[in-house]
């Protein structure tokens, strides 16, 4: 079922155009993530301007799209339960980030990996729909945007980027705006991957020498599956990275049932959250993350402590 087409994007709402474009690109292969991209765009747009006629009209049509998607995917837990949706979006954002990080550390610099870094940062924006970002996600967002800008500018200037976290300051995009890409948001048609643009605003200028980013080798299996297509880039096929499976905490084997420990509703909610995260991680064959979250849930339920 096709979503209702949107009217032209008002200039006041320009800051949400990239999240809407990401939603269009993910409509077929990741409709849950596309739904939350639109929800983020609507909530952000409402805060920017919901009073002028053109903005009200645009946001009203965007709300119609969200309602249509809710009807279409009404039986999907990731749409009906925020805790499941949050885990789904977070895992997908991390998947995009780690794919780009893998490519970066291997010295494979191309448009796909730049777009993956930038898309990961947009999806971390979307996580604010569910509440405040964790410190780790906020750090990943800054790093991903900075890396996208740095590699983009290096390639544009004919320079070879340095792989991995490095001390580089003052990076920002200076590319010509590709307005053909943004027109697809107005018409409601999906753009080609090669027409995507990257937002020049809010690019961090901090020094990232000491930032802690997990090595790309920790990327989930089959990470490249969601990479944008048709960019004309030829690169070596990337094999799924080996996973580091965490050892089961030995204390869990000898832990006594929390007979006198009374679990609060908050404890049950946290345990449920860990189980949902584990289930979402398994969708991406990320055994390590699944095991870690299941161990957290088990420890909480047995001992009453995290």
From TrEMBL:
Segments of this protein annotated with the region Disordered: 157-227
UniProt feature, compositional bias: Low complexity: 182-196
Domain Vta1/callose synthase N-terminal: start-end pairs: 15-157
Domain of life: Eukaryota
Predominant location category: cytoplasm
Any Pfam family matching the protein: Vta1_C
Record GO biological process: late endosome to vacuole transport via multivesicular body sorting pathway; protein transport
Chain intervals with Polar residues compositional bias: 197-209
Membrane topology note: Peripheral membrane protein
Vta1 C-terminal domain location: 265-301
Keywords (A to Z) from UniProt: Acetylation, Cytoplasm, Endosome, Membrane, Protein transport, Transport
GO CC term, one of those recorded: endosome membrane
Localization (cell): Cytoplasm; Endosome membrane
Family designation: Belongs to the VTA1 family.
SUBUNIT field: Interacts with VPS4B. Interacts with CHMP1B. Interacts with CHMP2A; the interaction probably involves the open conformation of (polymerized) CHMP2A. Interacts with CHMP3. Interacts with CHMP5; the interaction involves soluble CHMP5. Interacts with IST1.
Protein name, per record: Vacuolar protein sorting-associated protein VTA1 homolog
Source species: Junco hyemalis (Dark-eyed junco)
